């Protein structure tokens, strides 16, 4: 079964927001974005199972404007991205960012919009700080 392993939170102050969640719940900081990332700046936290990205986005990926804050998208770990992509597209999910959709170097996620416009990723490799598929 695919596993929920990633949640991205959009914020205007990634440092303060990450500090809040670290202090509130004891989440561990497991990384941060590259300063040269064209997509976002921020921090990656983990509870040991789930990767929580706390990010200030540089582009409006989800069509809610650059002022949007809150849960931005979630990520599902799958065993076979090609098979999952085919199934999602057959169900009407729109793939808008991935290997052949213009995503930059460092790619490992494929982004989709569900029937209600909710954005989600699929990936074959766990996010930093998240458990692998078989755990």
Indicate the percent of residues in helices: 10-25%
Low-pLDDT segments, ≥5 res: 102-106
Helix and strand run: EHEEEEHEEE
Give the name of the CATH architecture.
Roll
What structural class is derived from the secondary structure elements? alpha+beta
Structural Rg: 14 Å
How many domain units? Answer: 1
What is the CATH superfamily?
A: 2,3-Dihydroxybiphenyl 1,2-Dioxygenase, domain 1
End-to-end distance, in Å? 11 Å
Largest sheet strand order: 2-3-4-1-5-8-7-6
Question: How many strands, which pairing sense, and closed or not: the largest β-sheet?
Answer: 8 strands, mixed
Using DSSP, what is the number of strands? 8
Oligomer: single chain
Shape: globular
- How many H/I helices? 2
CATH topology: 2,3-Dihydroxybiphenyl 1,2-Dioxygenase, domain 1
Task: Output the CATH class name.
Answer: Alpha Beta
Mean pLDDT: 89
Briefly, what is this?
The chain has 135 residues and is α+β, with helices and mostly antiparallel strands. It is built from 2 helices and 8 strands. 16% of the residues lie in helices and 36% in strands.
What does this 3D model show about the protein?
There is one protein chain. The protein is an alpha+beta fold. Helices cover 16% and strands 36% of the residues. It is globular. About 4% of the residues have low confidence.
């Amino acid at each position: 079964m695919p596993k929920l392993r990633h949640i991205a939170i959009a914020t205007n102050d990634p440092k303060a927001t990450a500090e809040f969640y670290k202090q509130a719940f004891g989440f561990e900081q497991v990384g941060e974005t590259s300063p040269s990332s064209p997509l976002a700046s921020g921090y990656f936290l983990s509870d040991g199972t789930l990767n929580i990205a706390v990010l200030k986005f540089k582009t409006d990926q989800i069509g809610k404007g650059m002022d949007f804050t809150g849960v931005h998208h979630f990520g599902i770990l799958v065993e076979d991205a090609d098979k999952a992509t085919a199934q999602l597209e057959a169900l009407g999910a729109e793939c808008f960012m991935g290997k052949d959709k213009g995503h930059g170097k460092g790619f490992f996620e494929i982004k989709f919009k569900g029937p209600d416009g909710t954005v989600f990723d699929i990936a074959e490799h766990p996010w930093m700080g998240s458990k692998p598929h078989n755990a």
